[in-house]
Predict the structure.
Amino acid sequence: MSDEKPEKPDIDPFAQMIQFYDSISKSWASAMSDAVASKSFAESMSEQMEGNLEAMSFMRKQFGEFMEQYLQQMNLPTRKEVITMSERLTKLEMAMDDLDAKLDEILDILKTIE
């Protein structure tokens, strides 16, 4: 008696499923590629994006107004108020620098007079 078993052919139970998946994927990819390349698709996407941008703009405006009201109620400065204050401080710093430079000039002149 021999312990050798007869050789069974390798059967892949998923081979047909993989082949089916590949063929379906290729056909869908081709169909989608044709659809995306069409002018009507581009126009519809353009309209959809335009609508989305308008909606986002409206929402952003509404949110900004809401935040401004909220910050006022909480007695906190808004972004606009902080920017205005920063600009004013910058102008004050520049004016002080100019005064400092003029004061240095006056002191130099007084030293030369003495």
